[in-house]
Specification:
alpha/beta, two-stranded antiparallel sheet, disordered C terminus
Length: 338
């Protein structure tokens, strides 16, 4: 009986040809499918949502679900597990995320075009408060026009709604401007420096200087509400004194503060450079802060996966140069502490 040479059970298999002498031999566990799956793996781990991950890499929800199933088999791990109404990363997936980011960044650097600010039409998105926008706009926009005339800048104003998930905000923007140490575990650099002053309504029973007792008894207007404002020195120091501020009104901007303070008995803390812009508003007084520490600092945060991207590196440098130029402009005179 003649055996079939195409049968997997045949005993006489044709051996694979030996590599030519001197030819390089590659021993790798990497499969071609792994490279194809890398973008969707990274998106799934970062988004923790199949639909959003699919949108990120241009897949339908069904295709993204199938990709997740393949990746679960590939790693022998669930990767994403449902917790309530959301998905969380498994311990294995949390460790895998950093490796996936590094691998994706390395692959992008292999194929990326060099970034040329003078010719690029890339869009950069920055999330910041109206205060940061007011300070930076006079220097950042002219700088971008000089160095990168075709680059587009998208500015998103921070609010309690947009800042509910800072991890998500970082993933979908090129940077977020917030107080130091506000977002843990992400790279940051100091950007702006100012000082806090009090905006006091004309009906508030306050003399020529605000006291801690005044701050304790007067109703507050809180820019951005307690969540964002809680890390600011005025709120922190006041709580250190064992007192909880009586926040009567919260508003998603600093520029709206005088409208809510004017003619009332309310009080608010705002940065000095913003107070300078509000000084002509009827029905308010701008007085020194009674608190011991009045420094207002802001940092630029970004997603670690963008650190080595040439375009992002240029954008961070442009922001720092614009901030340095803005800080050289004479700020309002530091008011003495009462």
């Amino acid at each position: 009986m003649t055996s079939d040479p195409n049968s997997p059970s045949t005993a006489h298999c044709t051996p694979s040809p030996a590599p030519a002498a001197g030819a390089p031999q590659h021993h790798s566990l990497l499969r071609s499918q792994d490279l194809v799956s890398l973008p969707v793996l990274r998106a799934l781990l970062r988004e923790r949502n199949v639909t959003r991950a699919g949108e990120t890499v241009g897949l339908t929800q069904s295709a993204a679900s199938n990709a997740l199933a393949r990746l679960r088999r590939r790693f022998g791990d669930e990767l994403l597990v449902r917790v309530g109404r959301t998905y969380e990363l498994t311990p294995f997936a949390r460790g895998l995320l950093e490796r996936a980011d590094e691998a994706f960044d390395a692959a992008e650097r292999v194929f990326e075009d060099p970034f040329d600010a003078a010719t690029s039409d890339r869009e950069f998105t920055l999330a910041l408060s109206d205060y940061s926008l007011a300070v930076l706009s006079s220097t950042l926009v002219p700088l971008l026009r000089r160095e990168a005339p075709a680059v587009r800048l998208c500015l998103e104003q921070l609010s309690p709604r947009t800042s509910g998930d800072f991890e998500d905000l970082l993933r979908h923007s090129d940077g977020v401007v917030l107080p130091p140490d506000f977002i843990r575990g992400h790279p940051s650099v100091r950007l702006l420096r100012d000082h806090w002053v009090c905006v006091v309504g004309s009906a508030a029973p306050v003399g020529e200087a605000v006291t801690n007792e005044d701050v304790a008894k007067l109703p507050w207007v809180s820019p951005f509400g307690p969540s964002l404002n809680s890390s600011a020195p005025p709120m922190r120091q006041f709580r250190t004194l064992g007192r909880e501020p009586r926040i009567e009104v919260s508003v998603d901007s600093f520029q709206s503060v005088p409208l809510l303070v004017a003619g009332t008995d309310r009080i608010a803390f705002v940065p000095g450079r913003m107070a300078e812009r509000l000084a002509g508003t009827p029905g308010i007084r701008i007085l020194p802060s009674p608190l011991a520490i009045n420094e207002h600092l802001l940092s630029l945060y970004w997603d670690a996966s963008e650190t080595n991207d040439p375009g992002h590196r240029w954008f961070r440098g442009a922001l720092r140069r614009a901030a340095a130029e803005a800080m050289k402009k004479a700020p309002p005179e530091e008011l003495p502490t009462a």
